């Protein structure tokens, strides 16, 4: 997930090396500073509440203008996933706003996430260069995932899931500045992958993170590309 200067040597796209990208690690670190305390999920319009909590407090059928004032307007991707049915999209969006309030979305990326640096050596993921269409790319080096090492480090499914939420919020809310029409290209590198890596814990992890994406971040993936798959 780190914005990486050079991709691993074995990774190639269209059999060509990707050029170096500008390192922006300092930018990421800025958002790891714990400067605020989490708000308690409660449904009132207190100014001390996060914008998502204030939006959730507007109820199941909020006024669009009120949501816009809170920078929580009904996003395009929710309309897209419901076939442009505004009523159904708003229902899903209000459920997501409640979830965002509960996890304290505004401050998640402002707090330190030391588990990221514990997880990364055993389950590497990266934000990297844009694809030809200008969409960000997210690389998941699945072949280097080490379930045994994750277990030894005490990195349980809930911890990894929380880290995944942090990555997702950083990608869409910070890096792409809540651009509700932006999509990402997901690249899964399977080189070195073995079916022995599919333990109960990893299957549970994939199931939970997939459920979060489908429920709260639908229609954000332009395409998923699997490379170096075992024969």
Quickly describe the structure.
This protein has ten helices and five strands. With 231 residues, the protein is of the alpha/beta class.
Distance between the termini: 27 Å
Low-confidence stretches: 1-45
Shape: globular
Please tell me the overall pLDDT. Answer: 84
Percent helix among the residues? 40-55%
The secondary structure category is alpha/beta
* Fraction of residues in β-strands: 5-15%
- The total of helices stands at 10
**Biggest sheet: strand arrangement:** 1-2-3-4-5
The radius of gyration is: 19 Å
Taking the sheet with the most strands, its summary is: 5 strands, mixed
Helix and strand element order: EHHHHHHHEEHHEHE
Give the number of DSSP strands: 5
Spell out the blueprint of helices and strands.
Layout (H helix, E strand, L loop, with lengths): L1 E2 L21 H6 L20 H6 L7 H6 L6 H6 L4 H18 L1 H4 L5 H6 L5 E4 L7 E5 L6 H6 L4 H19 L8 E6 L10 H17 L4 E7 L4
Parallel strand pairs: 1-2, 3-4, 4-5
Antiparallel strand pairs: 2-3
Helix pairs in contact: 9-10
Notes on the protein architecture:
This protein is globular. The chain contains ten helices and five strands; from the N terminus they run E-H-H-H-H-H-H-H-E-E-H-H-E-H-E. It has helices spanning 25-30, 51-56, 64-69, 76-81, 86-103, 105-108, 114-119, 147-152, 157-175, 200-216, and strands at 2-3, 125-128, 136-140, 184-189, 221-227. Helix 9 packs parallel to helix 10 (200-216). The protein is an alpha/beta fold and 231 residues long. It has a five-stranded mixed sheet, with no helix packed on it.
């Amino acid at each position: 997930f780190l914005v990486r200067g050079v991709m691993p040597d074995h990774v190639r796209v269209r059999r060509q090396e990707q050029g170096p990208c500008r390192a922006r690690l300092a930018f990421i670190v800025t958002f790891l500073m714990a400067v605020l305390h989490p708000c308690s999920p409660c449904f009132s319009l207190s100014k001390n509440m996060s914008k998502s909590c204030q939006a959730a407090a507007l109820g199941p059928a909020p006024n669009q203008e009120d949501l816009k004032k809170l920078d929580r307007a009904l996003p395009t991707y929710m309309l897209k996933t419901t076939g442009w049915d505004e009523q159904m999209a708003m229902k899903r969006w209000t459920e997501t706003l409640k979830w965002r309030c509960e996890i304290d979305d505004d401050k998640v990326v402002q707090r330190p996430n030391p588990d990221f640096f514990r997880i990364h050596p055993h389950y590497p993921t990266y934000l990297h260069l844009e694809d030809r269409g200008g969409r960000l790319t997210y690389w998941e080096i699945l072949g280097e995932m080490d379930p045994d090492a994750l277990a030894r480090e005490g990195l349980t499914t809930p911890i990894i899931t929380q880290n995944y939420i942090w990555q997702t919020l950083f990608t869409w809310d910070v890096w792409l500045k809540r651009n509700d029409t932006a999509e990402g290209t997901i690249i899964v590198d399977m080189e070195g992958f073995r079916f022995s890596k599919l333990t109960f814990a990893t299957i549970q992890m994939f199931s939970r993170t997939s459920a979060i994406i489908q429920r709260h971040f639908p229609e954000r993936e332009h395409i998923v590309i699997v490379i170096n798959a075992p024969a």
